[in-house]
C-alpha cells in the first residue's frame, strides 16, 4: 500500500522544514561574527555595556530564576504531578544506565573536564573566598555550587515540560513555542510563536558555537605535548573535524548510535577519574576535601543562592554565579528537549530525581576528584599551580602541569584528549538531533528527523566554531551574546513551566473524571 501523500511523513523534507526558524538565527550569528571581526573595539564596547546592565544592574533576575527553578523541580517531583507517566508505556524506553549516561554527557560537553581541572584556581584568590574562610574550604565548595542543583534544575523543569508535551499530549511541533500553547493558545501559530522560536534557535547557535572556546585549546595543547605537533589553528581545525565526523556518524544512525557513544563516553570519563584518583597519591585528601565541600554546600545553599553583594565589595556573584546561571539557561534551549525525549516511560517523579542523581553524581565526582587533586598539590606544596597561572596567565598550561605530576603523563593526556572528544561528540549529537527536530514544522512523537536534515545541522554546528578560532575577540564577544540571549530565554522558561502546570492540571482532572 502506498503511503498517504497527505500525511506529514510522506511530504518532501523541503516542504516540512520551517526555513524562517532554521535560517534567520544562523544568518544573524554570521552577521554578528562579521561585525566582531570588522569592528572589534566598537562591538566589544557595546556588548560589554549591555552585559554589565543585565548582569550587574538586573543580576537579581537571574538569581531569582535559579532558586525558583530548583524549588519548582522539587514541587514537580513531590506533588501529585510526579505520578504522571511520560508516555503510554509502563517500561522506560532506556535502561537507567543508558538514560543517565545520555543525559549526563549530552548536558555538559567537554566543559566539565576543563572546569573540573581549573575552576578552584579561578576562585582561590578572590577576596570573597578569603572573607568566607580559607581557600581550602571554599575554593572546593563553589565549583559544586555552580555545577550543582540549581543549574541542573533548569534542565529538569524544562525536560519534564517537554517530555509531557511530546509523550503525553503528543504534540507534533517540537519547539519552545509549542510548549507555550496551553498558555498562549493560537498566538503561538503567529508572530509571538515565531519570536519565541527565533530567540531560542539564536541562543542555541550562540551557545553551541562558543562552548568550544573553553576546552578546545586544552585538547589541542594536550595533543601537541604528546605527539610533538606544533600548536596551530590547523591542528585545532583538525580536532574539530574529527569531533564532527564522530558525532555525525553517531547521529546519522539515530538514537541507538547516540546511546552507544554516550555509554563509551561514560566509561572513558570514569577511567580518567580512576587514573587521577589512584595514580596521583592524593586519595585521602581528595575524599576528605570533597566531604567538607559537600557539607559546606548543604549548610550554606540558600545563602549562596541569594547572595547579591549589594555593596559590590567583590562583585563575586556578578562575575561568577550570575554568569553561570545565564550560560546554563542558554544551553536550556536544546538539552532539556533531548532529556525529555529519552525519558519516555518514566514518571515525572523518576525524571526529576533520576535527573538529579545522575547529573549531580557525574558533576560532583568530576570536580571532587579532578579539582581536589590540583588543590591538593597546591596546599601540600608539591606544585605551585597558582604561581604557574599567575606567571603565564594561561589556564591550559597550568592544567598540563597538573597532568605532568601523574605517572605515565603522556598516557594521561591521551586519555584526557580522547575523553574530551567523546564528551564533545556526545553533546553535539544530542544538539544535532534537537536542532533537526526544531527545524520541522511538525514532527510526530517517536519520528526522527530526516538524515539529510541531521547532516545539515551536524555541519552547520561545526562551521561556526571553525570560523571563530581565527578571532579570539569574536569568540569572547559571542560568549557575551550567549549571556545576553539568556535574558529573554528566562521569560520563555517561565511561560513554558506555567503552561506545563496548566496543561498537567487539566490532564489529571481528565484522568480522575
Helix coverage percent of residues?
A: over 70%
How large is the count of helical segments?
24
Unreliable spans are 1-5
Q: Cα distance, first to last residue?
A: 40 Å
Outline, from the CA principal axes?
globular
Kindly give the count of domains: 1
- Major sheet size, sense and barrel closure: none
What is the H/E order? HHHHHHHHHHHHHHHHHHHHHHHH
Strand content: under 5%
CATH architecture classification name: Up-down Bundle
How would you sum up this structure in a few lines?
With 513 residues, the protein is mainly alpha-helical. Helices cover 78% and strands 0% of the residues. The protein is globular.
Sequence-ordered SSE layout with sheet pairings:
Layout: H1 13-16, H2 19-38, H3 40-57, H4 59-78, H5 96-106, H6 111-124, H7 127-132, H8 135-138, H9 142-146, H10 149-168, H11 176-179, H12 181-184, H13 191-227, H14 233-252, H15 255-279, H16 283-306, H17 316-331, H18 335-342, H19 348-379, H20 385-392, H21 395-403, H22 409-438, H23 451-468, H24 472-512
Helix pairs in contact: 2-3, 2-13, 2-24, 3-24, 4-10, 4-17, 4-19, 5-15, 5-18, 5-19, 6-19, 10-17, 10-18, 10-19, 10-24, 13-14, 13-21, 13-22, 13-23, 13-24, 14-15, 14-22, 14-23, 15-22, 16-19, 17-24, 20-21, 22-23
Folded structure, characterized:
- It is a single chain.
- The longest helix has 41 residues, at 472-512.
- The model is unreliable at 1-5 (pLDDT under 50).
- It is built from 24 helices and no strands.
- α5 (96-106) packs across α19 (348-379), α10 (149-168) runs antiparallel to α19 (348-379) and α14 packs across α15.
- It is globular and about 65 Å long.
- It is 78% helix and 0% strand.
- It is mostly helical and 513 residues long.
- The protein has one domain (13-308, 315-512): Amino acid/polyamine transporter I.
Amino acid at each position: 500500500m502506498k503511503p498517504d501523500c497527505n500525511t506529514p511523513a510522506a511530504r518532501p523534507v523541503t516542504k516540512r522544514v520551517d526555513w524562517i526558524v532554521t535560517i534567520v538565527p544562523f544568518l544573524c550569528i554570521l552577521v554578528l561574527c562579521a561585525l566582531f571581526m570588522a569592528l572589534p573595539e566598537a562591538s566589544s564596547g557595546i556588548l560589554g555595556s549591555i552585559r554589565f546592565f543585565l548582569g550587574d544592574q538586573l543580576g537579581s533576575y537571574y538569581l531569582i530564576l535559579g532558586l525558583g527553578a530548583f524549588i519548582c523541580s522539587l514541587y514537580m517531583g513531590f506533588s501529585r504531578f510526579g505520578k504522571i507517566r511520560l508516555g503510554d508505556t509502563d517500561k522506560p524506553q532506556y535502561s537507567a544506565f543508558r538514560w543517565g549516561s545520555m543525559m549526563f554527557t549530552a548536558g555538559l560537553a567537554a566543559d566539565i573536564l576543563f572546569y573540573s581541572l581549573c575552576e578552584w584556581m579561578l576562585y582561590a584568590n578572590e577576596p570573597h573566598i578569603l572573607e568566607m574562610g580559607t581557600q581550602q574550604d571554599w575554593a572546593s565548595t563553589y565549583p559544586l555550587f555552580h555545577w550543582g542543583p540549581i543549574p541542573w534544575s533548569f534542565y529538569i523543569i524544562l525536560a519534564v515540560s517537554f517530555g509531557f508535551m511530546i509523550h503525553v499530549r503528543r504534540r507534533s511541533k517540537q519547539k519552545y513555542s509549542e510548549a507555550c500553547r496551553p498558555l498562549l493558545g493560537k498566538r503561538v501559530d503567529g508572530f509571538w510563536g515565531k519570536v519565541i522560536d527565533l530567540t531560542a534557535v539564536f541562543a542555541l547557535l550562540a551557545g553551541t558555537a562558543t562552548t568550544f572556546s573553553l576546552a578546545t585549546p586544552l585538547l589541542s595543547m594536550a595533543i601537541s605535548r604528546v605527539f610533538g605537533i606544533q600548536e596551530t589553528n590547523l591542528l585545532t581545525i583538525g580536532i574539530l573535524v574529527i569531533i564532527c565526523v564522530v558525532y555525525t556518524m553517531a547521529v546519522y544512525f539515530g538514537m541507538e548510535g547516540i546511546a552507544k557513544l554516550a555509554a563509551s563516553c561514560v566509561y572513558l570519563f570514569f577511567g580518567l577519574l580512576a587514573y587521577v584518583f589512584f595514580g596521583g597519591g592524593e586519595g585521602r585528601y581528595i575524599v576528605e576535601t570533597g566531604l567538607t565541600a559537600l557539607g559546606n554546600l548543604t549548610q550554606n545553599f540558600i545563602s549562596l543562592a541569594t547572595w547579591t553583594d549589594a555593596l559590590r565589595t567583590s562583585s563575586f556573584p556578578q562575575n561568577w554565579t550570575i554568569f553561570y546561571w545565564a550560560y546554563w539557561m542558554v544551553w536550556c534551549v536544546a538539552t532539556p528537549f533531548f532529556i525529555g525525549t529519552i525519558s519516555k516511560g518514566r514518571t515525572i517523579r523518576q525524571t526529576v530525581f533520576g535527573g538529579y542523581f545522575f547529573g549531580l553524581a557525574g558533576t560532583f565526582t568530576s570536580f571532587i576528584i579532578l579539582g581536589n587533586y590540583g588543590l591538593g598539590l597546591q596546599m601540600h606544596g608539591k606544585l605551585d599551580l597558582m604561581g604557574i597561572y599567575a606567571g603565564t596567565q594561561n589556564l591550559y598550561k597550568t592544567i598540563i602541569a597538573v597532568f605532568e605530576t601523574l605517572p605515565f603523563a603522556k598516557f594521561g593526556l591521551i586519555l584526557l584528549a580522547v575523553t574530551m572528544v567523546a564528551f564533545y561528540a556526545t553533546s553535539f549529537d544530542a544538539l544535532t538531533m534537537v536542532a533537526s527536530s526544531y527545524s520541522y514544522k511538525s514532527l510526530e512523537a517517536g519520528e526522527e528527523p530526516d538524515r539529510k536534515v541531521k547532516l545539515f545541522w551536524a555541519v552547520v554546528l561545526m562551521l561556526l566554531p571553525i570560523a571563530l578560532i581565527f578571532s579570539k575577540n569574536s569568540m569572547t564577544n559571542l560568549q557575551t551574546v550567549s549571556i545576553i540571549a539568556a535574558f529573554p530565554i528566562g521569560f520563555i522558561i517561565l511561560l513554558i513551566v506555567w503552561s506545563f502546570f496548566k496543561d498537567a492540571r487539566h490532564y489529571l482532572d481528565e484522568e480522575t473524571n
